[in-house]
Amino acid sequence: MPLTGPQKTVxxxxxxxxxxxxxxxxxVPFYDWFCRVTGFGGTVGYASxxxxxxxxxxxxxxxDGSLNNDMAWEFTPVVREMEIxxxxxxxxxxxxxxxTDRPVAGMASYNVTPYQAGGFFEKIDCFCFEEQVLAPGExxxxxxxxxxxxxxxxxxxxxxxHTITLSYTFYEIDLPEGYAALETDQPTELN
Length: 191
Known about the structure:
alpha+beta
């Protein structure tokens, strides 16, 4: 039996919602892949080791740390900037502190500016996109090791980059189950 006018409209609307939902779901991994491959939007690459080729040319790397509006931690780079040779492995630390009386879980996202440097800034090890849980009053230092790919000196835009800024933003996430149970076991104050 063929669909009537209103039934056909409802079926088309439901179909459109399903297609749009599928496209929205697929766009996140596709966009992430695209940014990692191209360095678009300051997205950096990942490498297991630094290149053997270390140049005499240097680049200044600045470090920036910020928090999402609802994040209760304090978060800052230990050193604000360093100068490294292109191809040399750099090691920097960020410090996070939980001043609250409850455990707080967080995750960091990052970017690199200028955006053209994203394709040449390679991380070897990083705390980004990893769940971090800090107990009340806990302070930790989190390392990031990186290098600037020597190919930057041959790139028509990259060759003019002398300063790169690596920025992290921490945002609060839900506590894992084991920690969530600890949070509910704490006494609460009654007003």
